[in-house]
Specification:
Order of helices and strands: HHHEHEHEHEHEHHHHEHEHEHEEH
CATH architecture of the largest domain: 3-Layer(aba) Sandwich
CATH superfamily of the largest domain: Glucose-6-phosphate isomerase like protein, domain 1
Number of strands: 10
Helix content: 40-55%
CATH topology of the largest domain: Rossmann fold
Distance between the termini: 41 Å
Number of domains: 2
Shape: globular
Number of helices: 15
Radius of gyration: 20 Å
Strand content: 5-15%
Length: about 350
């Protein structure tokens, strides 16, 4: 049962497994991570390209921020149709292709990875299935070790993908402070889950669950490392409730999309504090000017208020997308069930989507 006494969904059970999944990944994957980091260093790439779909695309956005800020290496997100539809040959030699796929079964991700490997790139796959087609065509595989994920919305596999990516590039950068922070993740994730319960209490006079369950659409806003979090939570709102939800950078929001804000379109803001806080704060002020009081998932240093969930985590900003996505996941689960939709099944979706 959840806090309100309702039956617990499979999605909710899988969210609860995330701290254990992360602890297992960090404990059991050191050989894979160190091996991948060594291959990366030997390659000495001049560029990194990432191929992914769905939730894994958001993990790719996270990886881009992490690699560019940590290694100073330019990162691009692959357009799979260049390979699968237009059959255009690319000059792959001299770089690394990072393929992210929880199932490892999307044909376009597999095809791009195979083409990159044949073209001379080092190919690294992050996947939850070591026996998948993707794993079979990559040079190096890092397993997410999330176990079976039965709910259609990816939660523990997405989070594990972020952890695998963070651990890989902490090793590549030989950054011991980041590696020590990674070791604190299981505790931070458990604390985040506990802190979110009261914030989501649908019995409260005002609750994000009640507001989002009744919404026609939603805005999810952040910036920097947590732009990936905004995209991911917006996708989960679409999948679990069938509403139009869009994730935006706080900067992009101000270039026009803020016109979408209304009382029927609630906003969720992810504000990790740090360098991106001023622009996020400006976006919050503009939303409030338009009559919308956003719900805020915040890091230390953000003013606390009724609508702010201040998370008890002591992590560098580069790791905050890992715990900060959890309140969004729990919100989607609770709001979907209050709305009368099944968060486990999604809205007419399948667990594995195969595209070319």
């Amino acid at each position: 049962m959840n806090a309100a006494g309702a039956p617990v969904s499979q999605m909710r059970r899988e969210i609860a497994e995330i701290p254990e999944v992360v602890e297992r990944l960090l404990a059991e994957n050191q050989t894979q991570i160190r091996g991948a980091a060594h291959r990366f260093a030997v390659c000495s790439p001049s560029w990194l390209t990432i191929v992914a779909r769905g939730s894994s695309d958001h993990a790719a956005v996270y990886a881009r921020y992490l690699v560019e800020t940590t290694l100073g290496l330019p990162v691009a997100l692959a357009a799979a149709s260049v390979t699968t539809a237009y059959h255009a040959p690319l000059h792959w030699r001299g770089g690394v292709l990072l393929a992210i796929s929880q199932s490892g079964s999307s044909p376009d991700v597999v095809d791009v990875t195979q083409a990159a490997r044949q073209g001379g790139a080092l190919t690294i796959a992050v996947t939850n299935d070591a026996g998948s087609p993707l794993a079979s065509v990559a040079d190096v595989v890092i397993e997410c070790r999330a176990g079976t994920e039965a709910a259609v919305p990816a939660t523990k596999t997405y989070t594990a993908s972020l952890v695998a990516i963070a651990a890989l590039f902490a090793a590549v950068a030989q950054n011991p402070s980041l590696e020590r922070a990674l070791a604190r993740l299981p505790e931070a994730l458990a604390a985040t889950l506990e802190a979110t319960v009261d914030w989501l209490d649908a019995r409260a006079a005002q609750s994000p669950v009640v507001e989002f369950a009744a919404a026609d659409g939603a805005l999810v806003v952040s910036r920097g490392f947590n732009l990936a979090t905004a995209f991911e939570i917006a996708l989960k709102l679409k999948e679990t409730m069938g509403i139009f939800a869009e994730g935006y950078s706080a900067a992009d929001l101000m270039h026009g999309p803020v016109a979408l804000a209304s009382l029927r379109v609630p906003a969720l803001v992810v504000d990790p504090a740090g360098p991106v806080h001023p622009s996020i704060e400006a976006a919050v002020a503009e939303l409030e000017h338009r009559g919308v009081t956003p719900w805020i998932v915040a890091g230390a240093g953000v003013d606390e208020a009724r609508n702010v969930l201040s998370l008890p985590v002591d992590l560098p900003e580069s790791l905050t997308p890992i715990p900060f996505v959890l309140p969004g996941y729990l919100l989607c689960d609770e709001a979907a069930r209050r709305r009368g939709t099944d968060p486990d099944a999604g809205i007419g979706l399948q667990k594995v989507t195969r595209t070319r």
